[in-house]
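Q&A log
Question type: sequence-to-structure
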Amino acid sequence: MRLKLISAAAMALVLVGGPTAAEAQVRTPVTEAKVTQVLSPVQRDAVLSAVKAAYQKAYVFPEKTPAILARLDKAKAARRYNVENPNELAGLLTSDLREASQDSHAFIEYNPQRYAAATMPASGPPGQDLAGFDAAAARRDNHGLTDMRILAGNVRYLRIAGFHWISDETGQAYDEAMRFLKGGDAVIIDLRGNGGGASEAVQYLVSHFLKPGTLEITFLHAGREPVQTRALDNLPAGRMLGKPLYVLIDQGSASAAESFAYDVQQFKLGKLVGSGTAGAANNNDFVPIAPGFMLSVSTGRPVHPVSKTNWEGTGVTPEIATSSEQAQDAAHARALRELLAANPDPSVGADYTWALLALEARLHPVTPPEATLQAAPGTYGKYVVTAEKDGLWIARPGHPLWPAPRHLTPLTNGGLFAVDGVDMLRIGLKPNTLELWWKGEATPRLLTRD
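Response status: OK
Response body:
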């Protein structure tokens, strides 16, 4: 497995540029309150020696290794590492490793559970080694495929929280997800906050949007032959060549998540929406270090066939820049606008237009004229409109499916409102008239004020 993963602790350093007060752990968090290990001076020295040995042995940029070792030695001489809490030591070492290397995959975390799994002897209980440990986490997380939804206008949404990979298992989970996405008019893949994972999962995912055999990426490792990955030939769910694709990214998108986003951008497979990513491109291996640490060492770097480089240190910049919070709505709205422009079918176009109006109102909230708000309260047939501090509400007393008033959200400055929780209905407010706009009907039903 070619790992492209950044821990939560290292991600915090990417985001804020310094050590965190309490280093969060990836996969199986270990909070400081649960830490009972107290490090002795001998153990601290052994950890530092093991870190230096690992970088001397396998670091992908050997020309940087002397500066990294010198930084660690200087810190030790300054008694910087004279701490007893293993989480604190991990944070200090991570900060120094990253500053000396400018490598987002340079980090160490205190994780006794993963350390125990990584050092489990081959004769140990089945499934208790590191591969079994990670496989169990992957299965609990549905291999990272944590959310699938049909959004308005038949835009299919997939949330990938992490790129897990278990041979002969994860592919089947992706097959089901790809069949789901394939039925959409457009696709949104959400990688916000995705810290990375296995490059095998990226290869499997991106193959659905590439022609078979397309060179996807080349991994370079010091002293070893380059390793190339190509778009797979056999995909049980079939391909989605040309399917409108939108990928959500933010500063929490790192490593393998950036790899997929970079593929989408470089191969022009779709559009990236959100904010710039973490800038962690290298491939890392994990080294267990007693008494419970896991050290990440970059052992390879990717080279993309289009750009001839990668995104290390720079991140991936989206074509559609917006906040992380608004990225999904922005992508959804962009998809609907482009589908509307490309699809001449009036019935389908009406579906897109209906959904787009609500999205635009969320992205660009409107304030109805004060006169509309003041004149609206009243009874219109079986409907009652009231004004409260938070806006207008509508009720239908006695209706079993409408037991309580529902808030009206303004969609336009012209007096059109959405009914919270009832997507099939929009309310138009005109002088002494209430318009019931039902989805699929060309004209509204009119109710006059009682």
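Response note: Residues 369-448 form one domain.
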